[in-house]
Design goal:
The chain is built from 2 helices and 5 strands; from the N terminus they run H-E-E-E-H-E-E. The chain is globular. The chain starts with 11 loop residues before the first helix and ends with a strand. The N terminus is likely disordered. InterPro entries: MoCofactor_Util/Proc, XdhC_CoxI.
Length: 111
């Protein structure tokens, strides 16, 4: 009997490797710092391809859309970027963490 794998158990780093091998341009977003009650721990990943498809999570759904948009820019320019989200900065009205925490996410192209 075949075992079903939950999307929650898929490793974004393995997905990034597979997508890259398949010829897709890929960016990797990594939680590098958290404050307060951020929903994902440091080291959490989101992998994004040039079409905006993504797997993984950096915030439990709070800021993934904004991270994907920035990742597409990273893929276009080739320049990594550091993002910061939380209720205490200017992005709070655009995107925010429902739990009230803050996170820093590093987005880089994968070679």
């Amino acid at each position: 009997m075949a075992e079903t794998v939950s999307r929650d158990t898929l490793d974004p780093l393995k997905i990034a490797e597979d997508w890259t091998k398949a010829g897709r341009k890929v960016a990797l977003a990594t939680v590098v710092e958290t404050w307060g009650s951020a929903p994902r721990p440091v080291g959490s990943h989101l992998v994004i391809d040039q079409e905006g498809d993504f797997e993984g999570s950096v915030s439990g759904g709070c800021v993934e859309g904004a991270v994907v948009a920035e990742a597409l820019e990273v893929l276009e320019t080739g320049k990594p970027t550091m993002l910061e989200f939380g209720v205490a900065d200017e992005t709070a009205w655009r995107v925010g963490l429902s739990c009230g925490g803050r996170i820093r996410v590093f987005v880089e192209p994968v070679a």
